[in-house]
Specification:
Helix content is about 30%, strand content about 20%. By secondary structure, the chain is of the alpha/beta class. A 6-stranded mixed β-sheet has the order 13-18-17-16-14-15, with helices on both faces. A 5-stranded parallel β-sheet has the order 6-5-4-1-12. Helix 1 crosses helix 14 and helix 2 crosses helix 14 (about 340-355). The longest helix has 17 residues, at about 75-90. Bound molecules: beta-D-glucopyranose. Beta-D-glucopyranose binds near residues 65, 153, 206, 285 and 286. Beta-D-glucopyranose binds near residues 65, 153, 206 and 286.
Length: about 725
């Protein structure tokens, strides 16, 4: 903390009563100060003076979040919301402390009309391009701050280790290293060097720790992870983003090994504070203190839940819809159960952030900032670049793609007309359903293809809904009239537990449409827009080309069309393992035991598409790996190089992925782990020498004593289709 801010915080803290301190540690949803009921505010929304006074002046609540239910606001409306709150909190109160407004700007300023929607994080990860993540963070910061909001609940640093989980699309995928690199870049984009700037925000790493592996595959259900795996697989992505300076962190709603994380002092204090030295603000997730009582049942009363969470290390409670937290915490301090010094630790962090954000001087917008670039062409082009680099060509038999523009095509499948399937959740509203209404000026897949090749060349047949069979006869008849079928399938938008599924297969109605189209014998391009990898093995082998769009955002449709018709050469690579069967859900970095064929058993690791897979319209050839030395000690770097040549006929981008596998180790080694990557553009015929230097320390793993160790022995290095071996031997 700068000296000046530290002094300001101390001076303010000395003046504060217990009630005022507790208020700073409280966050409620905006509906709490609006007319009408919480979650059902009056429409159009309006402030309720009595509630404003109760929340901000009597209880001194220091932070507000969210948007009135299903009602994205304009920038002007946001200005009105935040300035009303600041006016009340700062002018009406004794100490004049500004409110800290927080929002889920997950892939753009989620709740502001006219914002620029980028791909969701899973698509961003598929770009394997940290500079795009930084740009996305920067534009999102700009448009969120332009909406008068200084704090975003992103990036999601959870590692998505089960493909059934409904929140995969919010993450950077299954690999800790990829997630760490992308998260670091995004934090830089959000925060820059100075979060008080007119175009920067404070970021919030979510959801600490271990959220991405619910045993049942459903959101917010119990997690079982031994501590050494928690440290090796789930911690590094947070650590990387913390090292990048992230100002805040949000806690995992789930329980790990029977202990809800919100009550876990080992994780929230011993690990987060004492060991990692994180000094930023730790906020709970939605209602999670109450859930210690009502859902997890480790606290017999709500008050006991408050005690547990504060004792564990929480700074701010996302309550979110009453003032009970304030009441209980004040009582706990007055009774002597919680010390006032404990409150000071948290309030210091909260006030510090408010000062760093410059909220005391500029509680709403920075003077003079006009935000002319909000929703601009410049930002749109950045969103387009992100979408373009994310889209992943999974299959392309006989160079089926790109299509020539004079082909007559049938577009079929409900996704072709779905805007929510482009934007996903956290778009205008929590579940993303209002994309239909608010993104009317944006184009869907059908429109993008029609724009590209002309309406005369396109025939449309809906074919099916998400899980409802449509008029297959119509689609089949129309298929007879065209050269090519573009089949658009996938998922609708959803968020959190609302996206839980019992079956990872694509719904039957969609499979039936695919099968009917295959029967026509026409070549097919399948476009998948989906938040997680829905299983397609019943028909994937009979489809010529498959393009995975994830949730690419508002520029997604034109990006996909540009790839189909060859304007753009695809370069996205899978950030997760695409499973072939619902009972074969393995990550790429599985253990050897998962790939050794046991007598008479089904083929082991055999996914539909591997992590890191993605095709291009050109061909990249890797030369042999040249190791500088083939024996190193643990203080050295693994230095190596190889040549990469574009032997095809067009410019393309290749993601060079470096994997290393430990041959033998005292904890069963993974077959391979991603240790480095780089995205490289090469012209047709161009060749480049690529160098890497990977510190040997990076090959460490966590033993059962929970220590990072590096054992001597032999390793394999994989790059493209090349392999080399080396040894670690200490002198
Ligand atoms: C989600 C968080 C989100 C928060 C605030 C919770 O339900 O788990 O990711 O930031 O709501 O909207």
């Amino acid at each position: 903390m700068s000296n000046k801010i530290s002094q300001l915080v101390d001076t303010l803290l000395k003046k504060m009563t217990i009630k005022e301190k507790v208020g700073q540690m409280t966050q409620v949803t905006l509906d709490m100060v609006l007319k009408g009921n919480v979650y059902e505010p009056e429409k159009p929304f309006a402030f309720d003076e009595k509630k404003l006074a109760e929340v901000l002046l009597e209880n001194h609540v220091g932070s507000i979040l969210n948007v009135p239910t299903s009602e994205a606001l304009t920038r002007q409306q946001w200005y009105y919301v935040v300035s009303t709150l600041q006016e009340k909190a700062m002018k009406g109160s004794r100490l004049g402390i500004p409110v800290l407004y927080g929002i889920d700007s997950i892939h753009g300023a989620s709740y502001t009309k006219g914002t620029t929607f980028f791909p969701h994080q899973i698509g961003l990860a598929a770009t394997w391009n940290p500079s795009i993540a930084k740009e996305q963070g920067a534009v999102t910061a700009y448009e969120t701050r332009a909406s008068s909001i200084p704090w975003v609940f992103a990036p999601v640093q959870d590692i998505a280790r089960t493909p059934t989980w409904s929140r995969i699309y919010e993450t950077f995928g299954e690999d800790p290293y990829l997630s760490g690199e992308m998260g670091k870049a995004m934090v830089n984009g959000f925060e820059g060097d100075d979060i008080s700037r007119f175009d920067k925000v404070a970021s919030c790493l979510k959801h600490f720790l271990g959220y991405g592996l619910p045993l049942s595959g459903k959101d917010r259900t119990p997690i079982w992870i031994p501590e050494h795996f928690l440290r090796e697989y789930f911690l590094p992505s947070f650590q990387a983003a913390m090292d990048a300076g992230a100002k805040t962190i949000m806690i995992n709603s789930g329980e790990i090994n029977g202990v809800p994380v919100h009550a876990n002092k080992e994780i929230l204090t011993t690990l987060l504070r004492d060991e990692l030295g994180f000094e930023g603000l730790a906020v709970t997730d939605w209602e999670d203190i109450k859930y210690l009582h009502t859902r997890h049942r480790v606290a017999a009363t709500h008050k006991e839940a408050v005690r547990m969470a504060i004792d564990a290390g929480i700074d701010m409670s996302m309550v979110p819809d009453d003032l009970s937290f304030c009441k209980h915490l004040v009582e706990l301090v007055n009774e002597g159960t919680i010390t006032e010094e404990r409150l000071d630790v948290s309030v210091r962090r909260i006030l510090k952030l408010k000062y760093e954000l410059g909220l005391f001087e500029n509680p709403v917008l920075k003077e003079g900032a006009t935000y002319d670039k909000f929703g601009s062409q410049e930002f749109l082009e950045k969103a387009k670049l992100a979408a373009v680099e994310s889209i992943t060509l999974l299959k392309n038999e006989d160079s089926n793609l790109p299509l020539s523009k004079d082909k007559k095509v049938l577009i079929t499948g409900w996704v072709a007309e779905s805007m929510p399937s482009l934007n996903g959740g956290w778009s205008y509203d929590w579940q993303g359903a209002t994309s239909v209404e608010f993104a009317k000026d944006k184009i869907n897949l059908r429109q993008a293809i029609e724009n590209e090749i002309g309406k005369n060349n396109v025939i449309f047949s809906e074919g099916c809904q998400y899980d409802e069979i449509g008029n297959l006869e119509d689609a089949t008849e129309k298929a007879a009239m065209v050269d090519h079928i573009i089949l658009c399938l996938g998922e609708n938008s959803y968020t959190e537990f609302m996206g839980n599924v019992n079956d990872l297969d694509l719904p039957r109605a969609q499979i039936k449409l695919a099968q009917a189209m295959i029967k026509t014998g026409k070549p097919i391009t399948l476009i998948l827009l989906e938040g997680r990898p829905r299983i397609i093995s019943e028909f994937a082998d009979d489809i010529e080309s498959i393009l995975l769009g994830y949730y690419p955002g508002q520029e997604g449709a034109s990006s996909i069309s540009d790839i189909i018709f060859g304007k753009i050469n695809p370069s996205g690579k899978l950030p997760y393992t695409y499973p072939r069967f619902s009972n074969a859900l393995m990550t790429y970095d599985h253990k050897h035991a998962e790939s050794v064929e046991l007598q008479g058993s089904e083929i082991p690791f055999n996914p539909q598409f591997e992590f890191g897979h993605g095709l291009s319209y050109t061909i990249f050839e890797y030369g042999s790996i040249m190791l500088e030395k083939d024996t190193m000690n643990d203080r050295e770097d693994l230095n190596f190089s190889f040549s990469l040549k574009n032997t095809g006929s067009r410019t393309g981008k290749e993601v060079v992925q470096v994997y290393i596998g430990d041959d033998y180790a005292s904890i069963t080694p993974a077959v391979k782990r991603l240790r480095a990557f780089r995205k490289i553009e090469l012209q047709a015929g161009e060749e480049q020498k690529i160098d890497f230097a990977i510190p040997m320390k990076q090959l460490s793993f966590v033993n059962v004593q929970n220590e990072w160790i590096l054992e001597e022995g032999t390793f394999k290095l994989f790059v493209g289709n090349q392999m080399a071996e080396f040894e670690l031997k200490n002198d």
